[in-house]
UniProtKB/TrEMBL annotation:
Pfam families: HCS_D2, HMGL-like, LeuA_dimer. The keyword Kinase does not apply. This is 2-isopropylmalate synthase. Belongs to the alpha-IPM synthase/homocitrate synthase family. LeuA type 1 subfamily. The keyword rRNA processing does not apply. Keywords: Acyltransferase, Amino-acid biosynthesis, Branched-chain amino acid biosynthesis, Leucine biosynthesis, Manganese, Metal-binding, Transferase. One of its GO terms (biological process) is L-leucine biosynthetic process. It comes from Paenibacillus rhizovicinus. Gene3D superfamilies: 1.10.238.260, 3.30.160.270, Aldolase class I. GO terms for molecular function: 2-isopropylmalate synthase activity; metal ion binding. Pathway: Amino-acid biosynthesis; L-leucine biosynthesis; L-leucine from 3-methyl-2-oxobutanoate: step 1/4. Its EC number is 2.3.3.13. Residues 24-286 form the Pyruvate carboxyltransferase domain. InterPro entries: 2-IPM_HCS-like, 2-isopropylmalate_synth_dimer, AIPM/Hcit_synth_CS, Aldolase_TIM, LeuA/HCS_post-cat, LeuA_allosteric_dom_sf, LeuA_bact_synth, PYR_CT.
């Protein structure tokens, strides 16, 4: 087989896992380097939850934190080491005895562990940060690796800022630590400075020039300051690295680290060209991304590869038409294989009749040609105003054209009473499609949104779990409009709804109703009442 054959994304029929594909170990530093992102601090209990998910994702090595930095950090590293017995745990430490002692003690109960030591190597770091000579730094590195080797068999050594260090000195430092027992050599692009060809060349030079290099593994740790972290990591693999250090969603200091999901899917999608594979469980990628985003309160950019909201959505009519005929026309990966809900068509001003008709048919709405033209004309007007036309608005347009309510439930009225000294109180009125009856429900909550959701859960009793809410401002000023995106989960399936309004509470309520309506219409198309019964019984 031609090693550059591009695989079919639906079947991967042209990709064969052979002996030629080397295994790339994934070292995750989300809980250490990722947490160093400004504002991304995690509580110890959050770290433990995320570590469990990382293990479920199939991470080979987890770096759970910097044990010496605080008692809470030490306790989190210690508990993760005790609990996750199937994953190698890395204790992070500066080339300082106190750091090493804390890392060794915190990871003592791990079944498999390593000590990860680092010290700067570039002249600019030595002159202005450490204020030490090259000879002094080499001696410190040698002494601290030897000290750590008393406690731990596996020692990873990182020459910080290696990509801005002379090749000769990197080789000198690597030879010194290998002689003292280092088993993994990490050559970081700490400032995201290197170009792929430069980074790959450094690995080749060190692997061929350093005595003992054939006895150790090589690892890459890339930052994304120039947007090259994934490209540099792939270059390192090509140059012989067998471990890549990553973070979920690419979080990390400044512009972040090499993105786990981007690197893994680049390897998976172009496996035969890269000549490598990983042990990552792809179906856990999306859930892991969401969990990290929530825990750190870091929203994911719409255009973020793999896990971004737009990564597998298409508005262009040409693209939509191609996708409806064959998904491979405009997609090189299967989002559902990564646990991403299938929702590839986004309706906006660039959408065509084919996509609109297809989306309405998914909700059991069939229109004749005259009705379709009317909906299309109304749709274009809405698209100019809203940019993206959510499902509930599209269904409402069909209802206006046919003079028949298609939504199982419509939010008729919403009232919220908020204050500083009391619980928030809300009431909602909804109209049910089949009976056309309007009913009012009341509820309370610690916040106005919680009160509204409690009302709506009474009004639409389908047993769905409120899963997620995203709020985005679409403009500025006092008349700014907000977009709310709500997802609910039923029988382990996720259903989403969006709405736009100047009142973000109302937008959230409308989005929740839209998500529930999508669930109901997906479960059963006959009527709102029958669908609810079906959903309940399901």
């Amino acid at each position: 087989m031609n090693p550059n054959t591009i695989a079919s994304p639906s079947t991967n029929s042209n990709i064969q896992v052979t002996a030629a594909n080397k295994i790339i170990r994934i070292f995750d530093t989300t809980l250490r380097d990722g947490e160093q992102s400004p504002g991304a601090t995690l509580r110890p209990e959050q770290k433990i939850v995320l570590a469990r998910q990382l293990a479920k994702l199939g991470i080979d090595v987890i770096e759970p934190g910097f044990a010496v930095s605080s008692p809470g950090e030490f306790a989190a590293v210690q508990q993760i080491s005790r609990e996750l017995q199937g994953v190698e745990i890395a204790g992070f430490a500066r080339a300082v005895r106190g750091d090493i002692d804390a890392a060794v003690k915190a990871t003592m109960d791990a079944t498999r562990r390593r000590l990860h030591l680092f010290i700067s190597s570039s002249d600019i770091h030595l002159d202005f940060q450490l204020k030490k000579s090259r000879e002094q730094v080499v001696n410190i590195a040698r002494e601290m690796v030897a000290y750590g080797k008393q406690f731990v068999d596996e020692i990873e050594f990182s020459a910080m800022d290696a990509s801005r260090t002379s090749r000769e000195f990197v080789i000198e430092m690597v030879e010194a630590v290998i002689a003292e027992g280092a088993t993994v050599i990490n050559l970081p692009d700490t400032l995201g400075f290197a170009l792929p060809e430069e980074y790959g060349a450094m690995f080749r030079a060190v692997r061929t020039g350093a005595r003992g290099a054939d006895r150790v593994q090589f690892s890459a740790h890339c930052h994304n300051d120039l947007g090259l972290a994934v490209a540099n990591s792939l270059a390192a693999i090509s140059a012989g690295a067998t471990q890549i250090e990553v973070t979920v969603n690419g979080i990390g200091e400044r512009a972040g680290n090499c993105s786990l999901e981007e690197l893994v899917m680049a390897i998976e999608t172009r496996k035969s060209a890269v000549g490598a594979q990983t042990g990552i469980v792809m179906s856990e990628i999306y859930e892991t991304s969401r969990m990290v985003s929530r825990a750190m309160n870091f929203p994911i950019a719409y255009n973020k590869p793999i896990v971004g909201r737009n990564a597998f959505q298409h508005e262009s009519g040409i693209h939509q038409d191609g996708l409806l005929k064959n998904r491979n026309t405009y997609e090189i990966m299967d989002p559902e294989a990564m646990g991403i809900p299938r929702n590839m068509i986004v309706l906006g001003k660039h959408s065509g009749r084919h996509a609109i008709k297809h989306r309405l048919a998914e909700f059991g709405i069939e229109l004749n040609e005259e009705q379709m033209q009317d909906v299309y004309d109304r749709f274009k007007e809405k698209a100019d105003a809203l940019k993206i036309v959510p499902d509930d608005v599209l269904v409402r347009l069909a209802s206006e054209t046919t003079e028949q309510q298609h939504d199982p439930y419509v939010l008729v009225d919403l009232q919220v009473l908020a204050g500083t000294q009391r619980s928030r109180i809300a009431s909602v009125t909804v109209r049910e499609r089949d009976s056309q009856e309007e009913s009012t429900f009341t509820g309370t909550g610690t916040g106005p949104l919680e009160a509204v959701i409690h009302c709506l859960q009474q009004a639409i009793p389908i047993g769905a779990t409120f899963d997620d809410l995203e709020l985005h401002s679409l403009s500025t000023g006092e008349d700014a409009r907000g977009e709310a995106a709500v997802s609910v989960v039923h029988n382990q399936l996720r259903y989403s709804g969006t709405a736009v309004h100047n009142d973000i509470i109302l937008a959230s309520a409308q989005a929740y109703v839209a998500a529930c309506n999508q669930l109901i219409m997906s479960v059963g198309m006959n009527s709102g009442t029958e669908a609810v019964k079906s959903a309940k019984s399901g």
